[in-house]
Amino acid sequence: MLLVHGIWANGLDMVLLKTRLERAGFATRMFTYPSVRTPPCDNAHNLQRLVGRIKSPVLHFVCHSLGGLIVRHLFHHYPEQRPGRVVTLGTPHTTSTAARQLSRLSTGRWLLGHSLEEGLLGGAPPWHNSHDLGVVAGRLRLGFGLFVPGIPQPSDGTVAVAETRLEGMADHIVLPVSHFGMLLSRQVVSQTRHFLEHGRFRH
């Protein structure tokens, strides 16, 4: 399994999630990348290099926020991926209202950098159903988005539930977690494990 972190992170935020998934029986590796210095498409090419070094016959992906958009680029440019499933956690698959609001300011554009390019403002490749995609959204409004007006509700405090939906996804579930809190949630781990094993969440 490959874990792909979100913006302004280096993978340390996913350590607890990684540990819990390993306890559940999954062998995991972390993909770290420069989230604002490099566009999602370029990060996907680097991700493919790591994929090529992994010998497992089955490879799952669990992605937080921007990480889910990078994996969409990965499957678009490298569609011949081995069997496996994909779970995205709080990924703004349509667009990110928070990013759009921030990008109106010069400081915001600097903070978001190249993550906006075919990424947080939309434009990531479509999902072609070659692999089961499970989408987890949060509805606990807590965090960064409290300081950014206009995010549709319900939301996880940063990404609206409506922004997480993607045509072609196999299943979608909304949990009582915040955007960052989903990385700490045992319920998210349980639902992620269930989807990876069965292709559906436990509703």
What key attributes describe this structure?
203 residues; alpha/beta; Rossmann fold; six-stranded parallel sheet; 6 strands
What does this protein structure show overall?
It is a single chain. This protein is an alpha/beta fold and 203 residues long. It has a single domain (2-120, 128-198), classed as Rossmann fold. The protein is built from 6 helices and 6 strands; from the N terminus they run E-H-E-H-E-H-E-H-H-E-E-H. The chain has a 6-stranded parallel sheet with strand order 2-1-3-4-5-6, sandwiched between helices. Strand 1 (2-4), helix 1 (15-23) and strand 2 form a beta-alpha-beta unit. The longest helix is centred in the N-terminal third of the chain and has 14 residues, at 40-53. The two termini are 24 Å apart.
Provide a compact summary of the structure.
With 203 residues, the chain is of the alpha/beta class. The protein is 30% helix and 12% strand.
How is the topology of this model organized?
Elements: E1 2-4, H1 15-23, E2 29-31, H2 40-53, E3 61-64, H3 66-77, E4 86-89, H4 97-102, H5 106-112, E5 133-138, E6 171-175, H6 186-198
Parallel strand pairs: 1-2, 1-3, 3-4, 4-5, 5-6
Helix pairs in contact: 2-3
Low-confidence stretches: none
Number of domains: 1
- The helix/strand order is EHEHEHEHHEEH
> Would you give the CATH topology?
Rossmann fold
How far the N terminus sits from the C terminus, by CA atoms, comes to 24 Å
Helix content: 25-40%
By secondary-structure content and strand pairing, the structural class works out as alpha/beta
User: Rg from C-alpha positions?
Assistant: 15 Å
